[in-house]
Amino acid sequence: xxxxxxxxxxxxxxxxxxxxxxxxxxxxxxxxxxxxxxxxxxxxxxxxxxxxxxxxxxxxxxxxxxxxxxxxxxxxxxxxxxxxxxxxxxxxxxxxxxxxxxxxxxxxxxxxxxxxxxxxxxxxxxxxxxxxxxxxxxxxxxxxxxxxxxxxxxxxxxxxxxxxxxxxxxxxxxxxxxxxxxxxxxxxxxxxxxxxxxxxxxxxxxxxxxxxxxxxxxxxxxxxxxxxxxxxxxxxxxxxxxxxxxxxxxxxxxxxxxxxxxxxxxxxxxxxxxxxxxxxxxxxxxxxxxxxxxxxxxxxxxxxxxxxxxxxxxxxxxxxxxxxxxxxxxxxxxxxxxxxxxxxxx
Amino acid sequence: xxxxxxxxxxxxxxxxxxxxxxxxxxxxxxxxxxxxxxxxxxxxxxxxxxxxxxxxxxxxxxxxxxxxxxxxxxxxxxxxxxxxxxxxxxxxxxxxxxxxxxxxxxxxxxxxxxxxxxxxxxxxxxxxxxxxxxxxxxxxxxxxxxxxxxxxxxxxxxxxxxxxxxxxxxxxxxxxxxxxxxxxxxxxxxxxxxxxxxxxxxxxxxxxxxxxxxxxxxxxxxxxxxxxxxxxxxxxxxxxxxxxxxxxxxxxxxxxx
Lengths: 346, 257
Fold this sequence. Notes:
The structure holds two protein chains of two kinds. By secondary structure, chain A is mainly α. Chain A has helices at about 10-40, 60-95, 110-120, 125, 130-150, 155-180, 185-195, 205-220, 225-230, 235-240, 245-265, 275-280, 290-315, 320-345. The mean pLDDT of chain A is about 85. Chains A and B meet through helix 1, helix 9 and helix 10 of A and helix 2, strand 6, helix 3 and helix 4 of B.
């Protein structure tokens, strides 16, 4: 929105605030509409105007079961996982002041994957279905504790990145080791498919485990918005503006661990959402890292829901994995960002 | 009387003593120039005064109360710090950057109010950046950027402004304007510590000059008593010529010794 030149600063401020609210409202409306689209897309067609189905409780018709037990949890997970991936990306980019930062960078996704892979490999997942999410969240939490001990208090953001690289390499090596040593080729195949990331065949059990943790994570990240805005001016300046950097870093790491750990444990590795979404939305919020948080949560939810609907529409026979689709779109985008950032540096 | 004091502070980086037992008192209403050769410890001293530097010994007190005992947000309303060559990590609009200077006051309130905006408007005029409204910081020249960052620091209405080389990248006009602005802040009852390399700006505008060399305090007095040949030789290893013009004294670095 263009702003008239002779407006006062306060009027300009209010105008740009209205623009940002309009963007959030627009995304919410589209998300609401896509929620219903998602419920009616799948191999079994369900009549929108049929009286056979209800979303909550009651009916035991086939349509109702498909809606309630297959498509509803899948849709809810797509929205929440997309939101956590989007906001985590925005928060990490704000913290590291680097548009290329993503949950993967500080090792939390990798460590969460490792936790879930261990649950697979040990056979615990076969006996006890909750072992998988518990493994993922434990992996993410261990990464957080490790990062905090390694990068510690009073340390720079660079130390955190380096610690993150160490965590990523270690969890990657251990994941490969698990695949390598797997005595059962089926278990290895299962791990391999799970690492690709998907929302197919998820139940309300997954929703119940993951969503509360993701909500806590998102609130933790939203509480960082003022600190992230000030951090745009560098660590010293942010501290001189009253921002407690240690607390801010901790809140972001815990928020990302909870939300990404829970997301990875129910859906596997779904990459690049946290990279693409904040980048696309940044111009609409005046590049302010704080304002970007909520917008990226909504944008991430939108993108992942659209991607999951696309996966269902495109698939014939073997379903295309959601993580594969986001990587196919995200990886070239990452390359484009690298080139663009490099050009700015030159 | 409000004052900010460094009491026998020492800072080590590895085995290198960057600040060696430095004591300094900054009263209100004064513009204090901090001078010294590269690597003398000026930036470390300014960061220490701002409460940003971990000290190996000694402490910094505001009104006789050690800095770490202050609530960080209350402290941030009283002391503003302008980092050397301050950059903005994202391509924010100029007014968004200046608005960040109000962060110390945004505890419970969600948005800036009329009072915040009138302060922002005033400091933007003071720093001569009103015409840059709506411009993206990353497209500005070095001097314009510095003035935006200075406005940001002033926007928190600090009692103590600690500015690390704010005039280094400015043209002569804006050097004079910024020094006059800092001088006005001091006249208005605030205290300003400014890291400078320009001996003449220090001589003309500063009420006091603090000369640092190798982490030790060499001199702390009115400019005329600090900027003499003996001190300049000890600190910078130069010989200078002094010229008296219009009641003022000008320093001309003449040759290396």
